[in-house]
Amino acid sequence: MNKLMSWFTDSLAPGMQKIFDNPWISAVASSMQKILPFILVGSVISIYNVFVRYIPSLPDLSFVNTFSFGMMSLIVAFMVAYFGMIELDHPKYTITAGLTSLTAFLLSLFPSMASIIVSDTGLKTFQIQDINYIGGSGLFISILIALFVMVVFHFYAKLHILEDSVSVPDFVCEWINNIIPMTLIYLVIGILTIQLQIDLVLFINWLFQPVVSIGQSLPGFIIISFLYVLLYSLGISAWSLNAIVKPILMAGISANAELALAGGSPIYIVTTETIFTTALVAMGGLGATLPLNILMLVKCKSKKLKTMGKICIGPSIFNINEPLVYGAPIVFNPLLMIPMWVNSIVGAIVVWFAMSLGFLNIPAGVNNISRIPAPICTWLTTDDFRAFIWFFVLFAIYTIIWYPFLMKYDKQLLDKEKNK
Fold it and tell me: Which positions fall inside the PTS EIIC type-3 domain (predicted)?
């Protein structure tokens, strides 16, 4: 066990931290954190729509969701390029790169999202045919376009063109240094989409389909749930993983929302809503720590764990477990890390089969209400009263998994306290 923990501490944790500190990945991760307000706005409407099902006379407010969460890819296209310039230390290009990325993203969608209508007089008009691509459906391509914009601006900035010029005014230098990379970006994407009629959306979706397919499978669900908890237990921000995982989760819930809107049934289980918002896989927070917190209150005899149980129970009820993870601690504590890892796997398996077999509704709309105590958030997210049953089933399972490990750790602390 000591050798394993040494490997975690000295090799795995620093290596993974280095990967997620990479400016290209960090730019995507930062963007995913900053779009949270738009997701929350969509969540409010999703909660409202639950009540609309029971009170049909309530007005339709879905347009709020359409122009907040429904513009997700458009917002991400700006954010990734903006934060990319910050991460790559090119502060002069932040706004320009962000706006270029946003408009270049729209250009990349041209064959899929819109068409040019030519009137009898020869007048050309631009007509949008499918707005879904600027929502979750276009998330993969928006990130890739933003990364392409980052590459162009980054390498152009390293040329330092006209920066030491005395004869050319500063504002003219700034114009030139913006125009050149912008023109190159528009030419490349425009030639591909307008001149060659290449549908980048279809191409990117085809390219990433294996990734999405794996992510939306049971093994993918288990891996994603486990990686979040693994990073967290190593003291690495689990949200760093969002740069890689979030597009899969967002694409899933967007597709579910479209299916529900068309009168169909949601089919994609692996979403942010399933992992976090239902508070089933992440009951009390990542690793299902709410049962642990309650066990600390009612079963532990050591002063440390009993005190931490009292301090952390408030946040735990609202599915916030940072105080518990770092205070118990779970981080780099083998006796509590192992059951936390097991919970992430067992929880994912139970939820997958409950939803895939029709014993619990699959979330049908964007919902980020995990700060509402469970099982209320579980019911609101799934719109299914069976959510209460599954909450208590999983609570019992997690409690059984936590119990022997916690008791052993409590005994160790109690012995130390007595000796002291």
Answer: 8-405
377, amino acid identity: C
Cα 401 to Cα 299: distance, rounded to the nearest angstrom: 14
| Closest listed residue to residue 335, CA positions, set 418, 233, 183, 257 | 233
Task: Give per-residue pLDDT as tens, 389-412.
Answer: 999 999 999 999 999 999 999 999
Dihedral of the CA atoms 378, 380, 385, 390 (nearest 10)? -10
> Tokens 């002291």 identify what position?
420
Helix, strand, or coil (residue 262): coil
pLDDT in tens, 191-214: 998 888 888 888 887 887 787 888
Residue 118 zone, left/alpha/beta (φ > 0; ψ -120 to 50; rest): beta
Q: Is 128 helix (H, G, I), strand (E, B) or coil?
A: strand
Q: Which residues pair with 61 in a beta bridge?
A: none
pTM: 0.77
**Start-end of H helices in 88-217:** 94-108, 110-113, 139-157, 170-190, 200-215
Q: Is 119 helix (H, G, I), strand (E, B) or coil?
A: coil
How many whole angstroms separate alpha carbon 338 and alpha carbon 280?
19
Residue of 159, 190, 191, 157 whose CA lies nearest to 81: 157
With vertex at residue 136, the alpha carbon angle to CA 37 and CA 367, rounded to the nearest 5 degrees, is 45
- Does pLDDT of 254 surpass 80? yes
